[in-house]
Every structure is written in structure tokens, then in C-alpha cells.
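# step 3/5: fold
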Amino acid sequence: MNIFRLCGDMLHLGSIMLLIFKLQRSKNCTGVSCRMQEMYAMVFCFRYLDLFWSFISLYNSVMKIIFITTTIYLVYMMRFKTPVCQTYERSNDSFKYEIYLLAPCAVLGLIFTDEYKIPDILWSMSIWLESVAILPQLMMMQKGREVENLTSDFVGCLGAYRAFYILNW
């Protein structure tokens, strides 16, 4: 592992922790897109299926588990945990990723996979899906026009995490 991947992982972890902190402290998820979190949950579940049969390192396995569980926890908080779920703005978080993004990402995953095995296709799909997972949040921020500091910090950390991963490649 190199320093770029480590920095990217820590920025990503930091972004998730910022969001969890914001939701737990304020008991409010106004301005945060649950639809984006749903997409990230799919990204991590599709990408990290290899947890069941492949061990690379303790660090790698722990980070995969943390990313999956914390993202699902965020979706849970925003959809079901009172009082946070009562502040969820479904009308503002209306980007229909299941219509506009899932099918194209699945097709791209099929076209650009290394091997035609389900885990490889899902991994390839997760790469495409992650590249557009921020769209629901950006659309929500555009509709709201006013963005809380922690929400913008969260989005900034996500962008920085992706930049470090590009450097890692």
C-alpha cells in the first residue's frame, strides 16, 4: 500500500465519520442525500464481495467492513431512526438513480469487465456507479441553495478521497 491510498482511505473514512457525527449531534439530516448513501452502499456491497473468499490483509478487510457497515448505518439513520428520519427531505432528494444510473452502470460493467463472472461484473459496475454516486447529493445541494458546513466538508472530503485514489492508480 502506498501513501496515496492510505490518505484516500482516511479521507473517505473521515467523510463518513463527519456525516455520522453531524446526524447524531444535530439529530437532523436536512441537506444530506440518503439516495447517495444508498448508491454508496451498493458500490461497497458489489465491490467487496470478495470478503467472503479472499483475504488480502487485515487493514484491507477491516476497511471494507467499516465502509459497508457505516454506509448502511447512515441509510438506516436517515430512513428509520427517530428523530433523524423525521427531518429527511424526500422531496428534495428526488434524483432517480434507479432509472438513470443503475442500468447504464450495469451495461458498462458488463462491457468493461475483465472476466464474465458475477463478482467481476459487479466489481466493474461498482467502479462506474461510484463515479456518479455523488449526483444525488449535488442535485440536492443545488435545490437547497443553502448548505451546512459539515455537509460541504463531507462532500469536499469525498472529492479529496477520489483525488488521492486517482494518484494511487
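# step 4/5: annotate
Helices lie at 3-26, 34-47, 58-79, 97-100, 102-111, 118-132, 135-144, 149-168.
# step 5/5: archive (pending)
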